[in-house]
């Protein structure tokens, strides 16, 4: 078998298309998956632009859907961004997403010998410890692929707070995660307000269940849950300030170094406030993500969030700045020639 992958050699260097022999043998518990479609996550964009540290050379991409072609039944599947050992002290505590031996799809150097470790390739090898979830055959590929990062992360955020039915929920940031969070929270019975500085993204959020969409100067007060997905220091402060007594803030957007945010400990104590960070996710969150998308994609326009499609040879163009568009992701189709 011949496989192809796009090698990333660092910021400012064009992607290199590599053709190689596929794995002759799989280790016990490994799967070989043929990738149907991958999506370009915001963290991929930041990595290529040099705004986020990453090993090089590597194979990027960690949102994808494919079909098992060796090592197991030929199911259509998505898989977790994180690979956990299941044996270390953190895994024993249920913190599998922070395993002491953690490996991550789209983040590993080629030097470790796990070549097919990213989504921008025709195939991927899924080691033991990867969460693999079957995907319905009728679920569009562009809807299924983001489950591995965006949708599962939102599921983890909502798992970190009490049930949101009947609650007032504020979401800051209306990118892929933000509009997904709006749809998931609204579907669970919450009254959702989404905040974003971009009017087009605010309008998009209303199509994903938001009862209202506001700018940064219009944040509501007295919300029960605040989900921060932009990573902006002002948004983090806004989420904390907006909480009602007994409120919960969940931060997931701050994944790069940035300015510190003031915290009033007296308000935290007297207000019975909770602040939680979410990074990566556990196996059950990916399963919930797929279950949600399998039902919600006909209610909310998730397919419209993925725009242009590119082949592996067109990755440099795929990472070029996009013209104004409501699409929040671009797609990579490994078998395409473009």
From TrEMBL:
Enzyme class: oxidoreductase
Native source organism of the sequence: Dactylosporangium salmoneum
Cofactor(s) this protein requires: Zn(2+)
Protein name: alcohol dehydrogenase
InterPro entries xref list: ADH-like_C (IPR013149), ADH-like_N (IPR013154), ADH_phosphonate_catab-assoc (IPR017743), GroES-like_sf (IPR011032), NAD(P)-bd_dom_sf (IPR036291)
Lineage: Bacteria, Bacillati, Actinomycetota, Actinomycetes, Micromonosporales
Family recorded in the similarity comment: Belongs to the zinc-containing alcohol dehydrogenase family.
Keywords: Metal-binding, NAD, Oxidoreductase, Zinc
Alcohol dehydrogenase-like N-terminal domain span: 28-137
Entry superkingdom: Bacteria
